[in-house]
Amino acid sequence: MSCNIAIDGPAGAGKSTIAKKIAKKLGYIYVDTGAMYRAMALYLIREKIDPSETEKISTKCREADISIGYENGEQIVYLNGENVNAYIRTEEVGNMASASSPNPDVRKKLVELQQKLAASRDVVMDGRDIGTCVLPNAQVKVYLTADSRVRAERRYKELQAKGEDCDLDTIERDIIERDRQDMTREISPLVQAQDATLIDSSHMSVDEVAEAVIALL
Ligand code: DC
Fold this sequence. Notes:
- By secondary structure, the protein is α/β, with parallel strands linked by helices.
- It has a single domain (about 5-215), classed as P-loop containing nucleotide triphosphate hydrolases (Rossmann fold).
- Helices cover about 50% and strands about 20% of the residues.
- The strands form two sheets. The chain has a five-stranded parallel sheet, with helices on both faces. It has a three-stranded antiparallel sheet with strand order 3-4-5.
- The site of 2'-deoxycytidine-5'-monophosphate (DC) has 12 residues, from α2 and α4.
């Protein structure tokens, strides 16, 4: 039987950094489910669909074949056979992913893909509904969070390092708004699974968090 580690939590809590580190240490595969929602969003943008067109999103998502592969340990997301990693980290794609991910047809398709991946391999999977919906029987479930100010500061430093102009208060406001959207949506809202362990990374280093998760295993 494969071993599954589920990591959920709000935007900016450090899920992907931690999940990647653990996967490398344990020799597991890292599955970034947010990247799949982003690839679907890219398809919808290319098809010129507006985030408000719910019915069109339901129909069009059937045409998007999303799969993942690995090159040098890095996850590659394919959209109808094309490697789209370089196009999914933009603000526009993130906004479309946020608007289209509550759609039940989009979720059904991507959750099936995620479950298939985890059934045959040891995975560390991160997202918003992994412990609650995608892998309810995961051996380890973590709800990773951090204070909104700390998350904003991390994002601020990342943007500054890239030479981008930004404002800490605005970033924190955006983070709080995104939390609200993710936590209050009707389908698969972001909640801590009853059997998940809460880890608050506000005052922890990456190594400390990774060790805490591995200790649970
Ligand atoms: O983690 P991220 O920013 O790459 O996620 C992009 C969007 O996809 C975000 O708005 C939340 C959504 N998402 C989701 O609904 N369920 C998941 N398991 C992962 C991401």
